[in-house]
Amino acid sequence: MHHPQAASRTDAAQATSDILVRLRARAPRVHCVTNAVAQSFTANVLLAVGCVPSMTLSVEEIGSFVSGAQALLVNLGTFDAERRQATAIALEAATTNKVPWALDPVFVERSEARAAFARELIARRPAVVRLNHAEFATLADAVPSRDATMSYARSNRTVVAVSGETDLITDGQRIASISNGHPLMSKVSAMGCAGSAVLAACLAVETDALRAAIAGLAIIGVAGELAAERSSGPGSFAAAIIDAVHDLEPATLIARTRIN
Amino acid sequence: MHHPQAASRTDAAQATSDILVRLRARAPRVHCVTNAVAQSFTANVLLAVGCVPSMTLSVEEIGSFVSGAQALLVNLGTFDAERRQATAIALEAATTNKVPWALDPVFVERSEARAAFARELIARRPAVVRLNHAEFATLADAVPSRDATMSYARSNRTVVAVSGETDLITDGQRIASISNGHPLMSKVSAMGCAGSAVLAACLAVETDALRAAIAGLAIIGVAGELAAERSSGPGSFAAAIIDAVHDLEPATLIARTRIN
Amino acid sequence: MHHPQAASRTDAAQATSDILVRLRARAPRVHCVTNAVAQSFTANVLLAVGCVPSMTLSVEEIGSFVSGAQALLVNLGTFDAERRQATAIALEAATTNKVPWALDPVFVERSEARAAFARELIARRPAVVRLNHAEFATLADAVPSRDATMSYARSNRTVVAVSGETDLITDGQRIASISNGHPLMSKVSAMGCAGSAVLAACLAVETDALRAAIAGLAIIGVAGELAAERSSGPGSFAAAIIDAVHDLEPATLIARTRIN
């Protein structure tokens, strides 16, 4: 992390490992407002990392589910009336109960209505916004350079995590890059959504949202690398990455996290 | 099973095996009102055991789907308006056509509205209520001891199957315990839901609901043990248990069922 | 293909291989209106074959998603109000923007309302209708013989692809049969739906809908055969067929396609 107060590379990797250990020890419940395509895979990745997933979207229930959760993910992957309504109630419960939340504004570049809704949500101060290059470009009206992401994080008072070949994570003051992951990750549906859920889970055990975001992306990225070594294509990879998340050793995570 | 009229341990294992053989021979259709997270995994487990799954929740269709089915599962995993309405129609069709049904009151401990709905459904006399300790405690207001489960079964005139490290199954007169299964089963989303679907399937080929419930839990539990031997984590385990259900030999099932 | 103008067996296999190569080169986006059980598996199969899946059903978004897509699949697997409405908007966008589409009228034999809706959709001229024997019998009121399928294709001015142990594909003038596939394919939920999605994808890169339908069925059938060689049951098979689709070599596809 390039900043006077920033921890060293080793410290950041150690912090990531500590977060993983706390996830397994505390088993936080992570409520996910996510798209139908992603629900099952996301739940299995959260279970594998040691969390308890919950997924209900029912307007009668989601308030109490979120109130009792330790973190919340809002993913816009299927932007329907049910999920918009669920999101409104979920955010009210999260705000009242100080439940940290992450936003994954999936596919905002494909629909202006979705982008407008994402902007409203960002104004409600997610701890982290996690998105890819095209999504960042749509919301920030800029290429996701180091300067542009830091500026966007500052003006929206949130942590921004832009994923790509190298992930950029910034709170507007500090900035880090992570170069973990594997090309097969882009060949599995809902891999990004599941990664955002892990990131949200990290918020449950780490109050420094920048640290939590780094940990979430490093955990899923390193697991992806390990899984690729044991896979023969995207189908076996989808199972192998769940195995890898489940079996991930803190020492391996420290050794393999490529953070700058 | 501890009761004067109860069959011996060997007889119970044999009955379980007979039920598996009948499932494969008759390929009953099992309609599932289940949560979005569980639908795909549940369908694949039902296919693997030899059944035909159907899953529609559409109010225009579910009546005719249930009327022609051989068993019904009602799972409360996502308790939304669509599923509540679908459940009402499904139960009317099941009652009229004498389609046996099982109830899985998922997460009733997390929402009073859900618990109230579960109580209404239990009053409509499912053949089996399958639930875990926390769910039983919420609905029965008691720890799931042998006495408490038998009492609850008697007063609700249903078979109660409480799953845990040891499963307890009782119709209020007879009681059995099953000690099959593997810890990885709790690391796969929808594993319990899929197990309840197998249990519902057994009701399609066995009129003694206690026997059917025992068979359902034994089949999935033994398959879980076999799958764990071939897995390297929860991701590969989720695929391996489907393979194991599909390949389960009656002789293996008899040999490995740990029933008391 | 038995017709004076029909290409030879070798030409048809070569055309299939060319379509696969174009899919990977162009990475078309395929929008799917499909059932909840099938969404995740379908998305993963489309990713494996080189496409970009999109799945939203939101009435506010689906129009713009379909307008920008290269092909559309309409699958009736869960025939609810949301999907009926989504289908209406999707077809309007497809017609306006000349996006080719395929129809998979799942389970029309189980519900008259569903069959009636399927007939309305067929009147709107899908490029291909892909269905099984029971579904064809319901819609065409005839056993799917070569004559009956050709006649149905002619009178509905569409390509008909009837899947079974041998698939029949006809545009009313030309007819071909494909004998690829493996029995395990019928043991995986949504396998047919995913196959129809691959078929729809082929329409994105091949204007001859008969050729596209043949390619779609051959690709998934050959992948199924290859996957079966590496599987130990339907669970591992579901992952292995995704691997096989992803790794399918054009030369292997040509060598193994059994077309007549």
Tell me what you see in this structure:
The structure is a homotrimer of 260-residue chains. The first copy, chain A, is of the alpha/beta class and 260 residues long. Chain A has one domain (23-159, 181-256): Ribokinase (UDP-N-acetylmuramoyl-L-alanine:D-glutamate ligase). Helix content of chain A is 52%, strand content 13%. Chain A contains eleven helices and eight strands. The first copy, chain A, has an eight-stranded mixed beta sheet, with helices on both faces. In chain A, helix 4 (81-96) links the parallel strand 3 and strand 4 (101-104). In chain A, helix 8 (191-203) crosses helix 9 (209-228). The model of chain A has no long low-confidence stretch (mean pLDDT 94). The B-C interface holds B 36, 39-40, 43-44, 47-48, 53-61, 64-65, 68, 82, 230, 238-244, 246-247 and C 35-38, 40-41, 77-81, 107, 110-111, 113-114, 187-190, 231-236, 238-239.
Key features?
homotrimer; alpha/beta; UDP-N-acetylmuramoyl-L-alanine:D-glutamate ligase; eight-stranded mixed sheet; 11 helices
Using the 3D structure, state the CATH architecture of chain A.
3-Layer(aba) Sandwich
The neighbouring-strand order within the major sheet of chain A is 2-1-3-4-5-6-7-8
Large-scale geometry of chain A: globular
Mean pLDDT of chain A: 94
Termini distance of chain A?
5 Å
- Count all strands of chain A and give the number: 8
Largest interface: A-B, 30 and 28 residues
Q: Nearest-angstrom radius of gyration of chain A?
A: 17 Å
Percent in strands of chain A: 5-15%
The CATH topology of chain A is UDP-N-acetylmuramoyl-L-alanine:D-glutamate ligase
**CATH H-level superfamily of chain A:** Ribokinase
CATH class placement of chain A:
Alpha Beta
